Amino acid sequence: MTRVGIMETAIRDGHQSLLATRMRTEDMIPALEAMDEIGYHSIECWGGATFDTAMRFLKEDPWERLRQIKSRLKKTPTQMLLRGQNAVGYRHYADDVVYAFCDRARQNGMDIFRVFDALNDTRNLEVPFEAVKRAGGHVQAALCYTTSPVHTVESFAGIADRMVAMGADSLCVKDMAGILSPAMAGTLVGRLKNDHPTMSVQMHCHDTSGYSEMAYLEGAKAGADVIDTALSPLAGGTSQPATETLVAALREYPDLDTGLDMAKLEELAAYFKGVRRKYWKFESGLLGVDAGVLSHQVPGGMISNLVGQLREQGAEAKLGQVLEENARVRADLGYPPLVTPSSQIVGTQAVLNVLTGKRYGSVTRETKNLARGMYGQTTVPIAPEVLQAILGDEQPIDHRPADDLPPEMEAAREEAGPLARDVDDVLSYVMFPQPAKEFLHWRSEGGGPERELVAAVAAALAGVGEKKAAAAPVSAPATAATDGGAWRQFGRMRQMR
Questions:
Q1: Burial of residue 3 (number of CB atoms within 10 Å: 0-12, 13-18, 19+)
Q2: Whole-model pTM?
Q3: Could you report the per-residue pLDDT of 181-194, keeping only the tens digit for each?
Q4: What is the number of other CB atoms lying within 10 angstroms of the CB of residue 470?
């Protein structure tokens, strides 16, 4: 009996976690048809940070990536990560944006929408759920897992109850920091399956702490229907555990066997091993197990951001203090789960508190908005003295934040002007105005290789000999105004590949 399904994350969360989300569509395409033959439950291929990164760094249209992927996945459902009312951005968008985004994502090829809210505030999921349903997609409701004095099996079960009542088609335990213990995995999944026996339950764990393989096994034994894994070259560390490892392990449990072919998986792994080498300069450096996450709960990607902020101030040695302060800020702000964007909000405020030496002496706009209720309701109310320190006498709102947002699509359409060819371009502009404007302008002028590829070729040319390198100088200035000769030189080289 084949029971446990596998969602493959290599072309979304795998490279987002390990390679700064830099994998290009052209490196995904050669593997897609083989991936389609594996028998995966689904393939995660879009959403999260991929939308932003595609335009900002890769000069790729994220909508075109989705179309290219869907055209090659004839048998396997596509899956994406949707940040609730934030869609794929970092703020709440008006309802008309969410409806339009979900409709266009579905029309361009998305099947399963994993929808979460950073605060687990189900009010922020009402419109995204309805938008996905209206578009004909599958709503997978994600519980953002975290630990604190107020996060219990009962509290998560209550959130799941509300999600099911709102129309969720399946549930997901989303363990973004890799802190779901094996015992809790079995207990929580067992509770969800007991409360909702006909509902599919999926598990998404990062391998940061080394817990995830054990958590998956205990969750599968308790009834988890699907687990998220990444092909081994893009697994481990802050990514998911390896697909091949879990397939091999579960094969020895007759009622948990995935039924996937190890030989085919190994062929795919060999391909992605080569792909990863191409992106060596984007390696996170956060390799192996970081058991410290079990105490500070800071996801790997967030740690790298904190290190970067401290390095800019010449204060990298204060990382330990920042991690301790991060825990205090999180408690002050009502114990939000540390996931985009709450992780960035808490982390940046912790850095400020440490560097200034005065807690909340300097407060970011995002921290103020979180305290104002602009991101939703925190797990527990923020203490009055903390609110006073952050907001003064200003009072937070107590309703759904998006209720205060007027429609945005028409104004965005006018602002984007002729650069936007269709509603997809308008949505790109709404989500990320400046990166989208730069991308659409670049496209309108005929496109061309982006700066990161020019830099990669410059590095390659440096190794072919001084004479050849001198004959074909290629540079990647930090400004957008890259030398036209370098662009043309690289364009000719790329056409010859």
A1: middle
A2: 0.88
A3: 999 999 999 999 99
A4: 9
